[in-house]
Design brief:
Distance between the termini: 97 Å
Strand content: 15-25%
Radius of gyration: 46 Å
CATH superfamily of the largest domain: Bira Bifunctional Protein, Domain 2
CATH architecture of the largest domain: 2-Layer Sandwich
Shape: rod-shaped
CATH topology of the largest domain: BirA Bifunctional Protein, domain 2
Number of helices: 10
Structural class: alpha+beta
Bound molecules: phenylalanine
Low-confidence stretches: none
Number of strands: 10
Strand order of the largest sheet: 1-5-6-10-9-8-7
Largest sheet: 7 strands, mixed
Mean pLDDT: 93
Order of helices and strands: HHHHEEHEEHEEHEEEHEHH
Length: 332
């Protein structure tokens, strides 16, 4: 019986040794502990057999089993410490972050050149004391034409051929209707600009596009003359384009201004380029909005934003603004 126990003990020890070598994680170690030392473990099961041995053999076998149990327990402790440390190191390595790596690159968007130019124009006029107003892009015939002194059969309508939504409702052909809306809603003095989108039935080419942008300006007050208009435009050109530009007024016609002018600018010695239509507000328009033309005078102009951007950046085709080609847009 003693030999039997000693044999089993040696077998268990061998088995423990080969199993312990294979252990690679804490979970496996715990399984092994249960297998050898658990309540029904291989070694645990030998202890009850001691009772059946005579006393002197019992002492020998008892020492043998106890020392084997201590050995296994000791090795479990050691393995446990080792594996815990190894798992901690692995986790740290997996979580490690190299702070010397270059930062992450994100492409930054930017404003469309037309938006940049519009904001710049707004800034210049706001600093001169103008307020930014707006009006609808879908307009009525009344605001777009009638109230601006352009009756139904007026030949000037040909110049502003529009897209009609229904009878009497159209996409505005210029920002001038905002003049009417603003004047009808308040008393003079009025000092506003209105940037916005406009539509005309133009066939696209290098200088025309059915959608484009204008900035309208309107200043109404006692005692304003063409000289004030000229100063405002000159000051704007100086700020927007910088020094070295010349400006020229020439006679033109608009039903809502009298006199009317076309404004051209050029870099000294270069070709003249038209940048806006302008003029003194026609008395008929003042009467329409309920202002007294004997009491106040005023002036207005309409400036093409695309035109401004093309002149400033040397762009020779208006269609480039609307094609969303990044090679073009990234340059601004
Ligand atoms: N509305 C005119 C156009 O689009 C421009 C303009 C505005 C002319 C204001 C005079 C005064 O052509």
């Amino acid at each position: 019986m003693l030999q039997e126990i000693e044999k089993r003990a040696r077998e268990i020890e061998k088995e423990w040794e080969s199993n312990a070598k294979e252990i690679s994680d804490l979970k496996g170690l715990e399984e092994l502990r249960v297998r050898f030392l658990g309540r029904k473990g291989l070694l645990t099961q030998l202890f009850p057999l001691l009772k059946e041995l005579p006393p002197e053999e019992k002492a020998t076998a008892g020492r043998l089993l106890n020392s084997l149990r201590e050995k296994i327990q000791g090795e479990i402790e050691r393995l446990k410490a080792e594996l815990t440390e190894r798992e901690r190191e692995e986790r740290l390595r997996a979580e490690a972050y190299d702070f010397t790596l270059p930062g992450m690159w994100r492409p930054l968007g930017k404003l469309h050149p037309l938006t940049q130019v519009r904001l710049e124009i707004e800034r210049i006029f706001m600093e001169m004391g103008f307020e930014v107003a707006s009006g609808p892009e879908v307009e009525t015939d009344y605001y777009n034409f009638e109230a601006l002194n352009i009756p139904e059969d007026h030949p000037a309508r040909d110049e502003w051929d529009s897209f009609y939504i229904s009878d009497g409702v159209l996409l505005r052909t210029h920002t001038s209707p905002v003049q009417i809306r603003v004047m009808k809603s308040r008393k003079p003095p009025v000092r506003i600009i209105c940037p916005g989108r406009c539509y005309r039935r133009d066939t696209p080419d290098a200088t025309h596009f059915p959608v484009f942008h204008q900035v309208e300006l309107l200043w109404v007050e006692k005692g304003l003359t063409m000289a004030h208009l000229k100063w405002v435009i000159e000051e704007f050109v100086r700020q927007f384009f910088g020094p070295g530009y010349e400006m020229r007024f020439s006679a033109d016609f608009f039903p809502f201004t009298e006199p009317s002018a076309q404004v051209h600018i050029r870099r000294k010695g270069g070709p003249w380029l038209e940048i806006m239509g302008a003029g003194m507000v026609d008395p008929a328009v003042f009467e329409e909005v309920g202002y007294d033309p004997e009491e106040v005078t005023g002036f207005a102009f309409g400036l093409g934003i695309e035109r401004m951007a093309m002149l400033k950046y040397g762009i020779d085709d208006i269609r480039l603004f609307f094609q969303n080609d990044l090679r073009f847009l990234k340059q601004f």
